[in-house]
Each structure stands twice: as C-alpha cells, then as structure tokens.
Amino acid sequence: MSISASYPPAFRQVINDGDPTEIEPVLDQVKDINIPVIDLERLDKEILTEACKEWGIFRLENHGVPLELTSQLQEISESLLSLPFEEKRELFAAVNSPLSYFWGTPALNRSGDALKRGTQASNVYMLEGFNVPLSSLSKLPVSTCDDGAQHSKLEPFRVSIEEYGRHITRIAVSLFEAISQTLNLDKFGDRRSELLSESTGLIRVYRYPRSSSVEAAGEALGMEVHTDSTVISILKEDETGGLEIMKGEEWFRIKPVANTLIVNLGDMMQAISDDEYKSVKHRVKKKDRTRERHSVCYFVFPQRDCVIKSSNYKPFTYSEFEAQVQADVQSLGTKVGLHRFSPKSPLFL
C-alpha cells in the first residue's frame, strides 16, 4: 500500500510517494528559541513563576514517564494512523468506541467530532488523529483472543494510552498544585479540584503528512494560530518538530529535545490567574516537509459547571466558555476565546 492511501482523499494531491529529494525547500525565516526548562524532580518555584508570567510555556524534564512507554505509544499510534483511510474511519465505529478519528481540522466538539467551520475558515488543515477521552477508556471493551480483528488492532493502543494517561495526569496535577501555590490559590480551598478536573482529561494523537506541494507549504500544512482552552496542555512530539510560539510580536520555533515534554498554559489558567499568567499563542508549521510529524497532546480543563471569577472577565462556567468557542468556530470559522468575556474588549458579548 502506498503511503498516500492512508491519508484522507483531500490530502492526496499534495502527497509525494516518490523520492523525497524532489520536494522543493521552503524559505524559512522563523528563528529557533530556547524556552524555560523546569525540572519536575527539583521544581524551582521562581523559575516556574517566571516561565508562566513571561512565556506561558516551558519544557519539562525528569518527568517520570518511562521512555519505553512513550516509544511504544508512538510506534503503535503510527501503525494505526498508517492504516488505509477507510479502515481508520470504520475502526472506531465498528467497536462502538468513545474514541474517535478526525482529520482536516483541529476544531472538535466534546465528543471528538469535527466542528463545521464558518465560511471565513481557512482551507482543510493537513492533520489527522485520534481523540481519546481518558475517563471513557474503561468503556472500550477489553480485547480477547476470540474478538474480531477490529478489537485486536485497538487493544495495544488502549493499553499504552491508558498507562500514558495515568502518568501525564499525575504530572498535570503536580504542576497545577505548584502553579496554584505561586498564585496563592489556597483561598479556593477544596474548589481547587474543580479548577483542574482530572475527569476532563483527554489525549489527542496527531499525524501531519509530508507534502510535495509548494502551494501547501504554508499554514495549512500544520495547525492554525490559536490558544488552548485548557488549564494546562502537555505535548510529546517526535524529532521532526514544527511547534512555533508567539513572543512579543514575533514567531519563534521550539526545537524538539528528546525525552522531554512541553507544557503550555491555556485560556482557563489565564483567567484563573487574573491575567497574571498568559495563554500562549502557538501554531504548527513543519520546516521539513519531507517527513511526517507525530505528536501526542494531553488537555485538561475545569469542571464544566465550575465558575471562573476574575476582575478582568465576567463570571463564566467552563461549559459556557466551551459553547461560545464552538459557536464562534461554526459562525466565524475561528475561535475568539477570552475576548468574548472581557468587558474591555470590542468583542465582548
């Protein structure tokens, strides 16, 4: 099977199954940048505070996720994503799974289905992946030797991502506790567990294809400029790289570093901190179009009925924020985010 057969049909016109040396280079003016590094085993609160205030993103080392596990998860994910397109579409439906397969857009609803974007939206984005709500993994039937082929293909993935989810949830909770201390969130008491709810955690596994099309060399080859709606997002990427962040008014590329994770703060953290900490703008643009890019990202949110109060925003629940984001994506083609809740913004509702 050619590699293009594993991609959605809309991607195939920009896929080259031939010699990768035929692919023309793209002029790249984005500079590399070193982001702050946090050692989870010896967490320095001053470095953490500066990273959250000045960057909204940092690299995490000594995180305790076994290298063998991350390598195994990447191998299994790549194998699943390399299946023929129609087979991937049928795989999750066949097992009545809470997991879902998506492609062409990173904008998904809570169920993992792609949102229909407004007419002003950009063209199809060159990415595909699996959406995995961690709290629903237990609903995925455990495969046995008597099960059909569809169950058997998903079983190694279920086992690996469930174990990875336990590690990454531990990290998110530890980081949130540390960040809460830097913000003196002790006043929230037991409500702190509502601000970061483990039950909301989900993982998305992404694949970005290689391409031979110069016309597709821009933003459509990765992920559009956005901020995450999360409290915290935690990324594990392969050596291909492609993550870029905005600092000041300039874009910078973050080079991948083996056996580390990248943590970025989301909109909910910005609101919780009263804008003291920032939700970082970022995008994905592959510098090397001859290679695929694979990544795994964990997202975690407040409880849906948790009320976020801030002097800079009208009070809102996460459920209200999520609904507004989805409404804007469907009507405008893009997320507006916290500006909808800020009385100082012209986009305030």
Description:
- The chain has 349 residues and is of the alpha+beta class.
- The chain is built from 7 helices and 15 strands.
- The protein has helices at residues 45-54, 67-81, 85-94, 149-182, 192-195, 267-272, 318-332; strands at residues 31-33, 37-39, 57-61, 100-103, 128-133, 197-208, 223-226, 232-237, 243-247, 250-254, 261-265, 282-284, 293-301, 307-310, 313-317.
- Strands 2-3-11-8-13-6-5-4 form an 8-stranded mixed sheet.
- Helix 2 (67-81) crosses helix 4 (149-182).
- The longest helix has 34 residues, at 149-182.
Order of helices and strands: EEHEHHEEHHEEEEEEHEEEEH
The structure class reads alpha+beta
Low-confidence stretches: 17-27, 215-220
Terminal Cα span: 51 Å
**Helical coverage, percent range:** 25-40%
What's the tally of helices? 7
Chain-averaged pLDDT: 87
Radius of gyration: 20 Å
Beta-strand residue percentage = 15-25%
Shape: globular
- Please tally the β strands and state the result: 15
Report strand order across the widest sheet. Answer: 2-3-11-8-13-6-5-4
Largest β sheet strand count, sense and barrel closure = 8 strands, mixed
Write the topology of this structure.
Elements lengths: L30 E3 L3 E3 L5 H10 L2 E5 L5 H15 L3 H10 L5 E4 L24 E6 L15 H34 L9 H4 L1 E12 L14 E4 L5 E6 L5 E5 L2 E5 L6 E5 L1 H6 L9 E3 L8 E9 L5 E4 L2 E5 H15 L17
Helix pairs in contact: 2-4
